[in-house]
């Protein structure tokens, strides 16, 4: 077969030399920009989103945080005073009654501290949490606003990550960094500073000696956090790239399923995760965390030893007169240590918040060349009587992604007012580029474009776009009602704000009448208030297109742009839509871009473009008379035979079209009714998330979730075990400290020489304890970082794999939009990571401390221990548990709502050209703001109650201390306890109470991790066993066979699972012999594409049998079916990567294991009529395709898709509208490729083609004509024409009379 590059190929070839270089430069610039930016500066910048109220709330909360942080040092001061009272009692200076009297006073002061901490904690936690919601709401909104204001080039460039992930995950991380974690950081820092402040006030010299540990700690923290932020930025960039891939893959899930490309996509996703792992490993992230933790705690415990050693020496020399002052200084170091234990994990959260904010601000700070939200520019009062005059004068333009490749070079074109101008030409000639320039998606590099004499770049961009409306090839509708979608056309116009609801409805109805949509809309269950589903899924292609036309004309635009508005429609839908377009084009300037030349033959002027230049223009008759470029295009489409259609033939066509339109309207009525029933049924289903695809799983508690995670992460068993032992060791240090401290206090009652020697010994013990902490905390920090990174990456892969392998109906769920799925892909593993990092180690440490301290208290003094363990701790634990339960309910609700709001953002970005054309930016911002406002209202109401219990859990420890202080002192005064018993039990109680309070600081991590784990488990459980398996079974004859597949359908019936009452196929029977080339034709919604879905087993029949090679398809492994089939869809799906990688996807999950040389790939390209083009590229098969394959033209993408399908040597080739969206030249090449395959693969491949363009299936062995789920005609092209029935009428409508 001869291969040709064609005009489009020639133009695209020229782009490839420059694209890679341009992208490399852009990536390098952005990388440099990231390196130059300050992540910590980004963290501080988050607070700038405070309004006046926000600053007041933050100020009050911060004051309360500081006050709360001072309370423990104040307790230390009072305890130091009590030591002096205690010594007086022990030396006999005071009587037992005097001792008990002073004891009561000090115990009462603890109660005062409890009240103060409860009130202050409640105020700051509530205020800062509320304000964090307000601030991150403003941040999310600003990010979305700046995203929508970007020029189209921003969205066409790869590497900006998934918007849904950024707006959800990054904003959540930023929220964590400025909410409770910020408060705990301020509180702990205050405790650290205040503890030393109290110590300075008591004994400045000893404190100054002890203070030498602080600079060492601060230097280490500063260095480690700086390096950690750099690594975190790199890791998050890799995750952003992974999310972008996921967004592309989830949005084209049929292609992945059809080629069983799960393994290939999982490897691509894992490649991004491997980069993240490499950044963390090469950056020594675990080592940094180990250094951070061990240095802090070594210095602190060494500080204990230093303070005690010097304190004893100074007491011995007489420089210190009261032992209580030494205790105060030691306790100051203790409290400073406690502050740092809380600061360390919060610093990690702040580091992540800073990195996340940095990514958000990179988009916010990006200057857009064309700002869609700009208020600048001229707003003309009147422009022309009806339409507008458009002039392109010496316009030159090159796309930003390939600046060295000009599309236009001094192009001049006049589009007269109130006339219809059509532009035709091959792919890459610049037709759609003109639309992009008129819409100001891009700006010309030189020259000018004027509208009624005004340069369009001088006009207000909103005014311009509301007066130039666009109808694209692929109709994009938004989730909502018919009325809302049509009324979107008023966005940006004065009517949008001043008209009443009834006036808007009147305009909507008038627009629908003009677009020939009113009749079918009226037949819908709720009329104009009928929900049409995401992207208008409940309407047929023709109906969606008519709604889009109504939306485009409702604002009475001056100019109407029609970019391939009918190319993807079946004959009946095309005729009605074309009639609607002709109707609305009157008294407007209309620019039509068309591949089907039959749709523009009546245009006032037809412009033929080639290589960015006008080669000829004139009316249809004038251009036909010249016999040049346009004439050749007409011949290739067989248009000249249209003159044979007239009179009675035309009437029969009209009658047929009307019948089809009525039938489809009735069918859609039933579809939407069923959908409404389904929606009502869903309201009575269990809580969302409890069941996925009918697979119910328990809602595990957190311990069960952790057990499952630890069990299945076999590679982490050793790190988990080592981490657990290190955490237990660290937790055991606290009761050991209590024992050591009780001995320390006795030293001051010894004779001078003994006091010094024993003091030296106990100081050495403190240093030994410091060495133990050095080892334990270095292991804890190292292993917690190792576990954290592994969990985050591993479970991202698990979620990606689980979503990828869900059955097809999973993706039809309104809650499982691409944006929502990507948002949860990013959010849920991050929630697990937040817990299974240093947090889980600190929780184990706290639990060990709590248990060991309680045991020590009971063992040392059972009376006091019993009172405290069973009297004081249960209320504290109970308050914390109530908070966890309340927080869990809130988190479940907000996670779903945040995913929904992220879905709004994702939907907007994926349809950004439609959003820009309709000036919907402000409307979508308002809708997004409303979604965030709903979350904020719900969260704030819940926080008012939740934080009450949190504050109680944080302050009850003071009551426990008061009880222990009072009761223990009384036992001491009556001689029941020794001093050593009292101090041991009291310090143990002090530690256990603070440990219990500290535990509930992590409830947010606990609740989010539990929710995330259960979501992941449910998601994984929802994967059917057939889609989960990866092993091959070569013994199956279906898998090993190399001959073409035969197809037999016997009384086949089918209805989609979400609308089971609406049959799509009914009692359908057909037979396809092996090696045949058969075609399915008919009106939209008649069941053609459904048959493809059944053959691919995206769904199973509800009745009847579908046999492949004589075997019921149910009895054949799903993997074997899809591995022996290949699918080419209407919209070719390519992914970021090279041509080789995209073609290799045809081998499915065996691509990596297949020894496929370039020769075999080139042979597939030759069969697809694309090899000459590929070989001519500078990098050949290594040439990058760009985001969504946009480096290639439509025809080239389609031929690459065909080559991908042929590479696997399919036994059954499925072509679903493979040429409908192509221009004439591309269609000719692709059609030649299809017919070549059908001929050359005889005996090897059976070909089934779904087609609207009947010229593409004229040579089929059998043509099956579908109507309303039945086959009404079957035969060869000539045979069906001879019958002069339905197929004949369809051919007449397309000017194909034989």
- Low-confidence blocks of residues: 1-37, 639-696
**Helix count, per DSSP?**
46
* Helical content (DSSP H or I, runs of 4+): 55-70%
Bin the strand percentage.
5-15%
CATH homologous superfamily designation of the largest domain: ABC transporter type 1, transmembrane domain
So, CATH architecture of the largest domain? Up-down Bundle
| Mean pLDDT over the residues | 79
**What is the β-strand count?**
22
Biggest beta sheet attributes: 6 strands, mixed
Q: Would you give the CATH topology of the largest domain?
A: ABC transporter transmembrane region fold
Write down the domain tally: 4
CATH class of the largest domain: Mainly Alpha
Based on Cα principal axes, name the global outline. elongated
Q: What's the N-to-C terminus distance?
A: 25 Å
What is the topology, as strand order, of the major beta sheet? 6-7-8-3-9-10
Please state the CA-atom Rg, rounded to the nearest Å.
Answer: 37 Å
SSE-based structural type: alpha/beta
């Amino acid at each position: 077969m001869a291969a040709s590059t064609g005009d489009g190929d020639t133009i695209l070839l020229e782009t490839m030399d420059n694209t890679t270089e341009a992208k490399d430069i852009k990536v390098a610039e952005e990388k440099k920009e990231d390196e130059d930016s300050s992540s910590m500066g980004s963290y501080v910048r988050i607070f700038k989103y405070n309004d006046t109220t926000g600053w007041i709330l933050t100020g009050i909360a911060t004051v309360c945080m500081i006050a709360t942080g001072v309370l423990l040092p104040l307790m230390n001061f009072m305890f130091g005073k009590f030591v002096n009272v205690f010594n007086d009692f022990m030396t006999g200076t005071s009587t037992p009654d005097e001792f008990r009297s002073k004891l009561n006073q000090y115990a009462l002061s603890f109660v005062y501290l409890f009240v103060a901490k409860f009130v202050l904690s409640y105020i700051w936690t509530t205020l800062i949490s509320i304000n964090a919601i307000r601030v991150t709401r403003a941040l999310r909104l600003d990010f979305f606003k700046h995203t929508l204001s970007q020029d189209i080039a921003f969205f066409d460039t790869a590497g900006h990550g998934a918007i849904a992930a950024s707006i959800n995950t990054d904003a959540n991380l930023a929220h964590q960094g400025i909410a409770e974690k910020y408060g705990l950081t301020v509180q702990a820092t205050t405790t650290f500073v205040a503890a030393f402040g109290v110590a300075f006030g008591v004994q400045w010299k000893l404190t100054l000696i002890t203070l030498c540990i602080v600079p060492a700690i601060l230097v280490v923290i500063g260095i480690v956090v700086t390096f950690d932020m750099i690594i975190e930025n790199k890791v998050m960039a890799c995750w952003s790239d992974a999310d972008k891939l996921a967004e592309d893959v989830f949005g084209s899930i049929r292609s992945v399923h059809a080629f069983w490309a799960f393994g290939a996509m999982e490897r691509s996703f894992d490649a991004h995760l491997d980069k993240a792992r490499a950044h963390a490993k090469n950056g020594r992230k675990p080592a940094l965390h180990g250094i951070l933790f061990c240095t802090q705690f070594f210095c602190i415990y060494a500080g204990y030893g230093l303070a005690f050693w010097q304190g004893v020496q100074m007491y011995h020399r007489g420089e210190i007169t009261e032992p209580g002052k030494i205790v105060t200084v030691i306790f100051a170091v203790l409290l400073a240590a406690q502050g740092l234990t809380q600061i360390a994990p919060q610093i990690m959260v702040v580091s992540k918040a800073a990195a996340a904010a940095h990514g958000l601000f990179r988009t916010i700070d990006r200057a857009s060349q064309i700002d869609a939200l700009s208020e600048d520019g001229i707003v003309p009062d009147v422009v022309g009587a009806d339409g507008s005059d458009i002039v392109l004068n010496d316009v030159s333009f090159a796309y930003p992604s390939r600046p060295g490749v000009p599309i236009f070079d001094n192009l001049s074109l006049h589009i007269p007012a109130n006339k219809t101008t059509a532009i035709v030409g091959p792919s890459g000639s610049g037709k759609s580029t003109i639309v992009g320039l008129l819409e100001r998606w891009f700006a010309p590099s030189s020259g000018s474009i004027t509208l009624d004499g005004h340069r369009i770049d001088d006009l207000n961009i909103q005014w311009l776009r509301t007066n130039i409306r666009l109808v694209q090839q692929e109709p994009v509708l938004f989730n909502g009602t018919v009325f809302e979608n049509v009324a979107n056309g008023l966005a940006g116009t004065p009517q949008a704000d001043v008209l009443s609801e009834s006036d808007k409805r009147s305009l909507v109805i008038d627009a629908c009448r003009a677009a020939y949509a009113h009749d079918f809309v009226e037949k819908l269950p709720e009329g104009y208030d009928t929900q049409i589903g995401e992207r208008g899924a409940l309407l047929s292609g023709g109906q969606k297109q008519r709604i889009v036309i109504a939306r485009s004309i409702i604002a009475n635009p001056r100019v109407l742009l029609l970019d391939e508005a009918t190319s993807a429609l079946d004959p009946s839908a095309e005729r009605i839509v074309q009639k609607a377009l002709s109707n609305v084009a009157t008294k407007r300037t209309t620019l039509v871009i068309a591949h089907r030349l039959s749709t523009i033959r009546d245009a006032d002027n037809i412009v033929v473009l080639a290589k960015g230049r006008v080669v000829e223009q004139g009316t249809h008759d004038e251009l036909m008379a010249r016999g040049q470029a346009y004439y050749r295009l007409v011949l290739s489409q067989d248009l000249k035979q249209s003159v044979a259609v007239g009179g009675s033939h035309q009437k029969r066509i009209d009658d047929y079209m009307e019948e089809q339109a009525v039938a489809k309207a009735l069918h859609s009525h039933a579809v939407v009714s069923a959908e409404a029933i389904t929606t009502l049924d869903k309201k009575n289903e269990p809580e969302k998330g409890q069941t996925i695809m009918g697979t119910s799983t328990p809602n595990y508690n957190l311990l069960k979730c952790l057990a499952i995670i630890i069990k299945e992460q076999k590679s982490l068993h050793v790190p988990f075990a080592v981490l657990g032992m290190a955490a237990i060791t660290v937790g055991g240090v606290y009761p050991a400290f209590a024992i050591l401290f009780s001995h320390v206090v006795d030293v001051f009652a010894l004779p001078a020489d003994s006091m010094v020697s024993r003091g030296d010994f106990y100081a050495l013990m403190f240093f030994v304890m410091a060495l133990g902490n050095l080892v334990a905390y270095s292991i804890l920090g190292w292993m917690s970082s190792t576990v954290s990174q592994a969990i985050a990456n591993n479970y991202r892969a698990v979620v990606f794999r689980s979503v990828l392998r869900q059955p097809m109906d999973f993706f039809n769920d309104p809650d499982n939009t691409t944006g929502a799925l990507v948002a949860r892909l990013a959010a849920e593993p991050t929630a697990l990571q937040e817990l299974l990092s240093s947090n889980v180690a600190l929780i184990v440490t706290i639990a060990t401390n709590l248990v060991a301290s309680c045991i020590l208290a009971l063992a040392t003094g059972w009376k006091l221990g019993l009172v405290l363990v069973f009297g004081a701790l249960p209320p504290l634990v109970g308050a914390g548990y109530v908070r966890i339960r309340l927080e869990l309910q809130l988190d479940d609700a907000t996670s779903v709502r945040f995913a929904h709001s992220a879905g709004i953002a994702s939907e907007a970005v994926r349809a950004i050209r439609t959003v820009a054309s309709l000036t919907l930016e402000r409307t979508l911002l308002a809708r997004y703001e409303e979604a965030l406002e709903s979350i904020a209202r719900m969260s704030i109401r819940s926080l008012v109650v939740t934080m009450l219990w949190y504050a109680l859990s944080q302050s009850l420890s003071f009551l426990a201390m008061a009880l222990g202080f009072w009761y223990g002192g009384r036992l001491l005064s009556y001689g029941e306890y020794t001093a050593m018993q009292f101090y041991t039990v009291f310090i143990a109680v002090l530690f256990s109470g603070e440990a219990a309070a500290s535990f509930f600081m992590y409830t947010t991590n606990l609740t989010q991790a539990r929710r995330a784990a259960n979501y992941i488990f449910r998601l994984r459980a929802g994967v059917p066993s057939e889609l989960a398996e990866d092993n091959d079974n070569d013994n199956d004859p279906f898998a090993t066979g190399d001959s073409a597949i035969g197809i037999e359908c016997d009384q086949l019936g089918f209805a989609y699972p979400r609308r089971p009452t609406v049959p799509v196929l009914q009692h359908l029977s057909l037979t396809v012999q092996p090696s045949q080339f058969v075609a399915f034709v008919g009106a939209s919604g008649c069941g053609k594409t459904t048959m493809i879905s059944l053959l691919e087993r995206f769904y199973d029949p509800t009745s009847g049998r579908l046999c492949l090679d004589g075997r019921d398809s149910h009895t054949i492994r799903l993997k074997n079916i899809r591995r022996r089939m290949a699918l080419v869809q209407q919209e070719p799906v390519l992914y970021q990567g090279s041509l080789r990688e995209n073609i290799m996807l045809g081998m499915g999950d065996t691509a990596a294991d297949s020894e496929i040389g370039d020769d075999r790939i080139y042979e597939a390209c030759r069969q697809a009529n694309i090899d000459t083009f590929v070989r001519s590229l500078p990098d050949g098969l290594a040439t990058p395709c760009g985001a969504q394959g946009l480096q290639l033209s439509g025809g080239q993408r389609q031929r690459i898709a065909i080559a991908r399908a042929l590479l696997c040597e399919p036994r059954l080739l499925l072509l679903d509208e493979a040429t409908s969206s192509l221009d004439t030249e591309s269609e000719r090449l692709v059609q030649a490729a299809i017919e070549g395959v059908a001929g050359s693969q005889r005996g090897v491949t059976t070909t089934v083609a779904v087609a609207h363009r009947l010229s593409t299936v004229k040579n089929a062995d059998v043509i099956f004509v579908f109507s309303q789920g039945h086959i009404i005609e079957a035969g060869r092209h000539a045979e069906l024409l001879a019958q002069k029935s339905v197929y004949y009428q369809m051919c007449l409508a397309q000017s194909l009379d034989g």
